[in-house]
Amino acid sequence: MMLPRDLLQLSLHNLLLHKVRSILTSLGVIFGVGSVIAMLAISEGAKRKALSQIEAMGIDKILVYAKKPSVEGTGENAEETGTTERYGLTSRDLVHIRQMDNVERVTLMHDTRQKVRKGIDRMDLKLVAVGYRFLLDSNSRIEQGRWLSPADYKQQSMVCVIGQNVKRKLFNLGQTDIVGSVLRIGQQVFTIVGILHNDNGTQYPELGSPNDMILIPTTTSDAVFGSYSFTMFGRQTRVTLVDYDLFIVTTHEIMHIDDTSKRISAYLQKTHDKVRDWDVLVPLDLLKQREATQNIFTIVMSSIASISLIVGGIGIMNIMLASVYERRKEIGTRRALGAQKSDILVQFLIETVTLTSLGGMLGVVMGIGISQLITLYADMPTVYSIWSIVASLLISSLVGVIFGTYPAWKAAQQNPITVLRAE
């Protein structure tokens, strides 16, 4: 019986004698492990990004939002030269929802539907009236300046806080005197008192990201714009009347959030019976659904990538079987000199496991490299974890054991007399 150290040295010596063949044999495992690592990193990155966007809306929140009816003719004619359409959430809805059990507070959002322009170009930005608690409920932070104060609401001040994308689109790069400057929207002039930054990817239904909003106090909006907005269509004027576009409902207890959302839906179904101009979104339910979907996606992607590992293992087994035939003289000579079957079996098994283990290590490096390139050039988040790296290395070694056992057993069964006679 040979010493394990001697078997290891002999196995490594045989692999180094055929460097090119050893590298080519390991390619299947290298690409297999690399694809598994990359797929898991991409999947986990996409999962975390999606879940963080949902979590940013608040798992203790219920979003009740207005939807423009898809049915034509739901509005009523105001006069011959124009039309009036009224839909969405009303003040009566606000009062009723605030009185419900498990409702801690309701933060308001109202799209003033005013056109925001830079010169003569209309910008894809929204002037939105919000409640005082919006900064907290949206998981945003003030990057520069301050947030809207209680005094601003009480005095109906002509002040605003702009999102970071508003800053980028309306002001020159490098301009530092934004806070304190004025912003003209239509006939109104607002003083910018702060710049808001939301780095969680929060997206509100029908309204979009806080980063694309110009935020003003609800009291100021009511005093200056009211609930009406006017849109010109040729010689006609369309009047749109929406009291509120979104309620951010914060609950006391998350365990009862589903019951609360059902009560809100039942109430709105009853009071808005003519047309469904509202909807309810529960981020917690959406979070659970998205998490389950992403887990299934991860399993499918990993399974597809693992097929290449199986193909690589089959290729290694094929090469090792050919190696057994090629090295019959070596095997016969060693057996004639006293080597046992177990020595031959362990030697070939060590060679296979070494090939797959080294291939696994190189595959891990390759997978991490691919992940970094995707993050750098495709602007997609990728996340690779220690457990995925360790699991890939263990699986690659296991592949060597599984697919190397038969060639090693085949080598150990060689009859030294028959082999040497043939040679």
Task: Walk me through this protein's architecture.
The protein has 423 residues and is an alpha+beta fold. The protein contains 13 helices and 16 strands. The model is unreliable at 73-81 (pLDDT under 50).
How many helices does DSSP assign?
A: 13
Most strands sheet: 10 strands, mixed
The H-and-E topology, N to C, reads as HHEEEHEEEEHEHEHEEEHEEEHEHHHHH
Number of strands: 16
Tell me, what's the shape?
Answer: elongated
What would you report as the Rg, rounded to the nearest angstrom?
A: 34 Å
- The span between the termini is 25 Å
* Estimated helix fraction: 40-55%
Given the helix and strand composition, which structural class is it?
Answer: alpha+beta
Beta fraction of the residues?
15-25%
Mean pLDDT level? 82
Estimate nothing, just give the exact number of structural domains: 2
List the helices and strands and how they pair.
Elements: H1 4-17, H2 19-56, E1 61-66, E2 76-79, E3 82-86, H3 91-98, E4 103-111, E5 117-118, E6 121-122, E7 126-130, H4 134-137, E8 141-145, H5 150-155, E9 159-163, H6 164-170, E10 182-185, E11 188-197, E12 213-217, H7 218-224, E13 228-233, E14 236-241, E15 246-251, H8 257-271, E16 278-281, H9 283-326, H10 328-336, H11 341-377, H12 386-412, H13 416-422
Helix pairs in contact: 1-11, 2-9, 2-11, 2-12, 9-12, 10-13, 11-12
Give a short summary of the structure:
The chain has 423 residues and is of the alpha+beta class. It contains 13 helices and 16 strands. Helix 2 (19-56) crosses helix 11 (341-377).
Any descriptors?
ten-stranded mixed beta sheet, 2 domains, 53% helix, alpha+beta, elongated, 423 residues
